[in-house]
Write a structure and sequence with these properties.
The protein is of the alpha+beta class. The chain contains six helices and 13 strands.
Length: 299
């Protein structure tokens, strides 16, 4: 639980460590690209996943990396695979934007790529060329259609949740302490949400207490940041009580292991940034920070 407390800084970090070596994440990426480069080239037909393609870079790198998760694919005329396949390509941002504009969610494309399918690992493919849209593969077209149909989970206490394939969670808006908040339940490896749902029910039964607890915790952690760096001209320093009175619950994310993220509207404290408080029912609240369009999408 709480692996997010130990996460690498990711795309916002430098590619080099203080000791002059490669960041471990970058080193693993380099090793993966070496293995993909040595793989055989193949013609694949793929169904693009719900997130489409995205690109990112590490600070200090001269190139960008595009990734695109595929939810169904086949090599040549072989049987269809429903394992996830991750397509990757490096290049300049403009070049990759051209690929991203083609690889839209649920589209079916023929590509030429170097396929790396190693035991006990998610298959990877180094994209060489997009050959064109595929319109004659009925099986992959049926999969693309199936994956766009809505999926619901009905709960006797909290009502109907709709599955968001892009974020792998079930979501609905619910009353929360006199207002409304979105509840997002992350599915486990089997696609189930029973564990997250049980935790959410505990939160919602004691929502007034949790609302107060989260607001006070955020205030205790962040009021000094507000007073030191975010006061408007002529604005008086805030007390913790002032701070807690301004924030409002926007969404709650519950993971299968019981970890919770409470996303708060900042009430103008940080010019529209979101406030994130993390913890769990069993361990209490652990940390809080202020974010601008970072972390998981809570909309």
């Amino acid at each position: 639980m709480f692996d997010w407390l130990k996460r690498q800084p990711g795309v916002t970090s430098s590619a080099a460590t203080a000791g002059g070596g490669l960041d471990p994440l970058v080193a693993r990426s380099e090793q993966l690209y070496e293995r993909m480069t040595g793989a055989e080239e193949a013609d694949l037909t793929v169904v693009v996943g719900p997130s489409g393609a995205s690109s990112a870079t590490f600070r200090g790198q001269a190139f960008w990396t595009m990734t695109c998760a595929v939810i169904g694919w086949r090599v040549g005329q072989r049987p269809m695979e429903r394992r996830r396949l991750m397509i990757r390509r490096r290049g300049q941002r403009g070049e990759l934007d051209a690929f991203r504009s083609q690889l839209k969610p649920y589209s079916v494309f023929r590509i030429k790529a170097r396929l790396l399918d190693e035991p006990d690992s998610e298959p990877q493919a180094l994209l060489e060329q997009v050959l064109g849209e595929e319109t004659g593969d009925a099986e992959l077209a049926a999969l693309a259609h199936e994956q766009q149909q809505p999926v619901f989970h009905d709960d006797a206490d909290l009502g109907r949740f709709e599955f968001d394939r892009r974020l792998n969670w079930y979501s609905r808006s619910l009353p929360w302490d006199g207002s409304t908040a979105k509840l997002n339940l992350t599915a486990d490896d089997k696609g189930q949400i029973s564990s997250a749902l049980n935790v959410a029910k505990e939160l919602w039964k004691a929502q007034a207490a949790w609302s107060e607890k989260v607001g006070k915790f955020a205030a205790a952690q962040l009021v000094s940041l507000k007073n030191d760096s975010w006061l408007d001209s002529g604005e008086a320093p805030l007390t913790e009580s002032d701070f807690a009175g301004k924030v409002q619950m926007e969404s709650v994310i519950v993971d299968p292991d019981g970890a919770c993220e409470f996303w708060l509207k900042d009430g103008g404290l940080f010019a529209g940034h979101s406030i994130l408080v993390r913890g769990s029912v069993s361990d209490g609240l652990l940390d809080a920070d202020c974010r601008l369009n970072q972390g998981r999408d809570t909309r």
